[in-house]
Amino acid sequence: MNDFVDDLTRRLAAIRARGLLRELRRVDSAVGARITVAGRELLNFASNDYLGLAGHPALRAAAVDAVGRYGAGSGASRLICGSLAPHHELEAALARFKGTEAALSFSSGYAAALGTIGALVGRGDVIIIDRLVHACVVDAAKLCGAKLQVFPHNDLAELEKLLLRLDQRRTGAVTHGAPRGRTLIVTESVFSMDGDAAPLRELVDLKDRFGAWLMVDEAHATGVLGPDRRGLAEAAGVADRIEVQMGTLGKAIGAAGGFVAGPQVLVDYLVNSARSFIFSTAPAPAAAAAARAGVELLQSAEGQARRTQLFERVAQARAGLAQLGWNCAAACGPILPLVLGPEEAALAAAAALRERGVFLPAIRYPTVARGAARLRLSLTAAHTAADVAVLLHALAEARVGPPRHDGPGDRPPA
Length: 414
Description:
3-stranded mixed sheet, Aspartate Aminotransferase, domain 1, 44% helix, alpha/beta, 7-stranded mixed sheet
């Protein structure tokens, strides 16, 4: 064991030396606008609970009732005997909410991406991803066996060139008797670290031109964007032209897990082919029941009121940040990135804010690119105007502002 321990100790030391060491912080409270860390209450701007539903009485009651009726665990995978009523009720609610024929829930968003991409494409196929997609999509793309292509973030011209070259090669190959293969394009709708939006209308037009499939991860748009809060695809009017819509249950919906929505045949195929679904014990019935309650609540008048309150806080934060020199114009939702550059700068800023009662951890490589460390500010409907004012005052007092680039050759971090 000594060699094993020594090797891992050296690896950890190297991570620490690069300013990238991560540690778990114990939270001794429910995760809301305020959390308790190390016996101290902090104002929390790090949560993805955008509508403030995680602690809502309706979700709590649904989870408690499910535990009473079904127990703490599901006992087996869905295809054995773990496909409990709460899972089916959740999926029916998700399909109604998303306006699709069917939906399938997974234990996590990561599992949803891994299982779905691995089932849809493999050897002989091509998967094309935006450079800034979430790590779950990157890992799935690397593991699925398809040829991986990456296009610069939201760069439609480069994506079109990729698709054109691929089409020309495949046309030549098919002429000589080779199978054509499939092409899957994957993007987020609202990107998790920059908060900006994908050009979904243009992406849909491109994939249709070249006969590709499109998978869109709506994790940070579900419950927040669109007339019925279905996501950016609804807001852009292209939801019915997207082959695979993916989302999570642990952000605006307020529970835990992931899902895929689309045609019934897609769900039937995933039940038979998605390994992260087939070979996982089913999610806890309490989580499924709470998620169903969240889906129903966000479609209600209260859900609309919470979204309105959320965007009031977003507008307040944007205006205050602009006065401090931050430009968050590209962000389209509750994620406002404060890019500081070096890892040390982000760590120091996060520590300075904690001293002032604000919890906003540093985001560093590999979550973002090297030299693009940041504070990722997330607003929720649970924040008050006074909470945002406290945040802005703390940023000003701690002198947390955008990095200066005084030299003629200096460039801001990507």
